[in-house]
Amino acid sequence: MTEPTTTPQPATPVPPVALSILPGEGRLEGSNGRYEKHLPDLEGLYRDDAAYREVLAADDGQPVYWVETTHTEDGPGGLITGISVLEPGTVGAEYAMTRGHLHAVADRSELYVGLSGRGVMILEALDGRTEVHDVEPGKAVYVPGHWVHRSVNVGTERFSTLFCYAADAGQDYAIIERAGGMKSLVVKDGDGYAVQPNPDHTGYELAPRP
Amino acid sequence: MTEPTTTPQPATPVPPVALSILPGEGRLEGSNGRYEKHLPDLEGLYRDDAAYREVLAADDGQPVYWVETTHTEDGPGGLITGISVLEPGTVGAEYAMTRGHLHAVADRSELYVGLSGRGVMILEALDGRTEVHDVEPGKAVYVPGHWVHRSVNVGTERFSTLFCYAADAGQDYAIIERAGGMKSLVVKDGDGYAVQPNPDHTGYELAPRP
After folding, report:
1. What share of chain B has pLDDT > 90, as a percent?
2. Which residue of A has its CA nearest to B29?
3. How do residues A107-158 score in pLDDT, each as one tens digit?
4. CA quadruple B197, B198, B200, B203: dihedral positive or negative?
5. If 0-12 CB within 10 Å is exposed, 13-18 middle and 19+ buried, where does residue A26 land?
6. What is the pLDDT of residues A39-81, one digit of tens each?
7. How many other CB atoms sit within 10 Å of the CB of residue A63?
């Protein structure tokens, strides 16, 4: 038990938030934020540009992934929680994936809990280590601080996860762009997946302080 | 998007943690901590002391609730996540419950996600507000900072939840003891539950800084 300390009490703390998790519909009822990514937003994400153009030409305009969040308090006390939903598919050899990020406040960690479908989390440390973990219903992965991470849908259904991270963490997406992509690719291999080195990856470098 | 900042990188960030959530067994595979509460540990928790003595006399020595956690990093970046498992039952009119707590760093929030069984989360703010939310599979509750909170099993099966909170939050259990218990009781009412005022509750007061 930690020794209690008195911290200033706000006159009226924000109300609790009741959430219903609807992975089938890809929704988090009770959330107060949503963003969507469409195929045209993902220019440069996949290695095979010709394959990307091909998929883009057949695009039906639906989002390829989206996130619904509840964010009621800022950091350091607040947590952002939400559902991340990633449609299945491939672009060239690569499975459908999110952009991936390091937290802008890099020591902030994140929990991902599998809700539906079959996916993996790629995790890469700036010292060169890569880990790839399966995420599916009943499985979760704790992403410590200082790990670049990305979700990949390696199945044939919607891959959805519940996540939770500190409200002051933020996201640094550019670290992956500057590095020529993540170090590892998750590609189709029969009915499963394989992890391959990305020949374009030039190593991670933190942005200089602005 | 938050502007990236450079924070010092540890030479070797701690490895990610793969977790398997086993609510049927009441286990979190991959966790590195566990504590159990037995009936004799809960002296004074329930209002009806005669009923408590009676249940205690028939005690089979098994834990009445337990928690398995993964804790790999300290705050402020780290998160503790775990499974909380609460056996069903009543002591007098009251349903089986956890001790409840305010976070020692009171502005720290917590997410609870229902995994099995049927329970409620009682939430009480120091300004006198009470909220009671149902928690069951597919439902979650975000507990903002500054809310005293407790889990209650209002069903007939094990009630288990997945939780996630900042590693530096800590728990202040004594605030409830000093107040003569929480302001609200969750009691059996037919097959369901009712929320009643606790006549012993004297109001919450923060501990003086040591």
Report:
1. 90
2. A139
3. 999 999 999 999 999 999 999 999 999 999 999 999 999 999 999 999 999 9
4. negative
5. buried
6. 999 999 999 999 999 999 999 999 999 999 999 999 789 999 9
7. 17
- What does A17-59 look like in DSSP terms, one character per residue? EEEEEETTTTEEET--EEEEE-GGGGTTTSS-HHHHHHHHHT-
Which chain B residues are Cβ-neighbours of A41 within 8 angstroms? Answer: none
CB atoms within 10 A of CB A118: 19
Nearest to A147 among B5, B13, B104 (CB): B13
Comparing A70-79, A192-201, B153-162, the range with the smallest average pLDDT is A70-79
Residue B194: strand, helix, or coil:
strand
Distances in Å between the Cα of B115 and the Cα atoms of A26, A101, B50, B56, B79 are 18, 29, 33, 28, 19
DSSP annotation of A209: P
Q: Which of A186-202 are b and which e, b meaning 16 or more Cβ less than 10 Å from the residue's Cβ?
A: bbeeeeebebeeeeebe
Tell me the H-state helices in A58-108.
none
Of A1, A18, A131, the CB nearest to B16: A131
- Report helix, strand or coil for A153: strand
For an interface test with B, the pick among A3, A79, A178 (most B C-beta atoms closer than 10 Å) comes out as A79
Question: Is there a contact between B149 and B158 (Cβ–Cβ < 8 Å)?
Answer: no
Residue A50, H or E segment: helix A49-57
Name the residue type at position A177.
E
The tokens of B19 are what?
């977790």
- E strands of B87-146, at which residues? 90-91, 94-95, 110-116, 119-125, 130-135, 139-143
How many CB atoms are closer than 10 A to CB A92? Answer: 16
Q: Prior bond to B4 cis, omega within 30? A: no
Contact A55, A42 (CB under 8 A): no
For B183, the 3-state DSSP assignment is coil
d(CA B165, CA B81): 7
Of A4, A11, A81, the CB nearest to B175: A4
Residue type for B9, please?
Answer: Q
* Closest alpha carbon to B87 in B152, B188, B158: B158
Query: Which one, of A107, A125, A104, lies nearest residue B12 by Cα?
Result: A125
- The first and second tokens of residue B171, run together, are 């728990």
The position carrying tokens 């009643």 is B196
